[in-house]
Amino acid sequence: MGKASNTGVRPTIRMVAELAGVSTATVSYVLSGRRGDAGPGVSDPTAEKVKAVAERLGYRPNQAARAIRTGRTNTVILSLTMLSDPWSLSVIEAVQKAAAPLGITPMILGDADWVKVLGTHSADAVFVDAVRPGQRDALRKLAEHGTTLVVFDEGLEPEGFDVIRSIAGPGCRMAVQHLLHGHRRIACLTPATAGGASGGTRYRAYSEALMEAGIPENEDYVGLFDGTSAGAYAATTRLLSLPDRPTAIYATTDFAAVAAINAAQRIGLAAGVDVDIIGVGNTVEGERMSPSLSTVGPVDFFGKLARLLLQRATSPTTPDAKSEPAVLDFPWHLFVRESAPHRSSATRLY
Amino acid sequence: MGKASNTGVRPTIRMVAELAGVSTATVSYVLSGRRGDAGPGVSDPTAEKVKAVAERLGYRPNQAARAIRTGRTNTVILSLTMLSDPWSLSVIEAVQKAAAPLGITPMILGDADWVKVLGTHSADAVFVDAVRPGQRDALRKLAEHGTTLVVFDEGLEPEGFDVIRSIAGPGCRMAVQHLLHGHRRIACLTPATAGGASGGTRYRAYSEALMEAGIPENEDYVGLFDGTSAGAYAATTRLLSLPDRPTAIYATTDFAAVAAINAAQRIGLAAGVDVDIIGVGNTVEGERMSPSLSTVGPVDFFGKLARLLLQRATSPTTPDAKSEPAVLDFPWHLFVRESAPHRSSATRLY
DNA sequence: CTGTTAGCGCGTTCAC
DNA sequence: GTGAACGCGCTAACAG
């Protein structure tokens, strides 16, 4: 049966070489498709024979052995703390798309304990999405010892690694201020876990913006939910059933805003007409839905992140000319779409 | 500054050996804590000195080099197609918990294209959560050439790899039949993408069970939603607002059932009293909520999966005595909890 | 009992 | 197109 030679052992380059009647060097050149400097240097018939044997044996170069020699693993590691968060999925998607054409495989580390793992395992570049205070030292040390790092953290200085920042505060203020152009009764939809009424940058932007506008706080207008989409839906239903119902909702995440639009629709209130709804984060779902979601957020965040990471992964690990570790600071924009259009004195809802 | 010697290069075992004034063998023995056979053959002072130098240099053994020698990567790969699915998160969580004490790192592969990746990258064991028909050959070849595989797939025979099965059909029937003991007006809550009214094992169980019970199909009772939690919430609200509203809901996933309970509660219908709700999957969330969710599903699925995977990862890669590749077939159970209690002729809702 | 020597196992790559 | 050194950590066999 056309099938042959499988001892259950992984074939090595030497087995291929022997069966093809050539040297290991030749096999290596044929399969990796490169030759020191000069032209092809390997004849077509030989190349064909080698390829055939390799295929028959099911030979695959051993990445570990290759890494030891070249110092490159063709791998990037993504350390993601909240794998269930759509944010993480967007990171993964963007990096995968950018990595595929380069032959680089993204490996995801779901554990928050990247310190231990990165101590032993290495990759061409590593993205870390959260750094606890106690981990800052470890981070610096890793960078010192040759690990290429890209870190997402507000308020961390680059010390041998890149820092990506995305300051939410001002952007969130823009969102609330946008609503203030046409509304006075503005509710806030925010997960109870994220600090809610107490802390949380995104909530604080709401309460501060209202205060500045001279609007008194109204506890009824703070819709806390459990972090799930269904919870946001239910909380919105409650808000819009209030006797003096809000005419606008500021949701601290896009996915909550999406649920809010659905909930409003269900009650018979059209988003962008009867009630304005704005989100935070500028995720793709909001752009695609109907009515499209007004939101604030960085522009092309994930794409830029992925490009930086892969640029770092592919550029030779020059500890010397390290193309200066940089801070990538993302400016936030306001995206005025259908769910919360521009309002003026003529169209305001109060 | 206590700090020293960081050329930005990763320190090797030889650097440590030189600075500590010992041989690389000694360093290796000290840091790996093992010695051929006899007791600890390294004196305390030497060990201390080596450890000190290693620490100062930030030395970490190079996993690639270690792997090439030992054949073990201390890594398992989880190839997960639907990373956003709670099911995947449960797999990750269970494997992480089981792997940590063994010093094994789970690496997640978010891409569906495990064939290409596994061709080059290797791990002590690999879990694959979905096999497309065209990938079956590749699977067999990988197993032949020494990759330790655990595959989740209904209807695939083990050929050098383990197969985990979890036949949903009969279990789902049990769920619907449980409802049939006390109900006639039974709705089905199912994502439109999963085949909905057309295909889908879980939906088919519903329509077949009803047919057998002599209950005519009622299109109004099929609550299709978009796959999101908010969508399930909205669909439930619609179902329970029907003039002849259903007294029971069969949800094809636990998370949809959870959303349904919340939606019912919101309308003033108590789950398990006014309306019975049952899910599918036996996820942990359902067990913890109040009222607790009745459901069907395998018992300790993720725990058993994790244990099998790690057992395969740690047991020496003996292609010969491969402890027979097995089929792990998960029997489904009915978990009668509060949201859909036992009903008899005395307590039935019709 | 303590520590060293030397060679292994990979794929890569320079010099011939 | 080949030979052989190389980079890494591990470990059997040996020397003091």
Automatic annotation (TrEMBL), chains A, B:
Signal peptide: none annotated. Pfam families: LacI, Peripla_BP_3. Residues 11-70 form the HTH lacI-type domain. SMART domains: HTH_LACI. PANTHER family: LACI-RELATED TRANSCRIPTIONAL REPRESSOR, LACTOSE OPERON REPRESSOR. This is LacI family transcriptional regulator. It comes from Paenarthrobacter aromaticivorans.
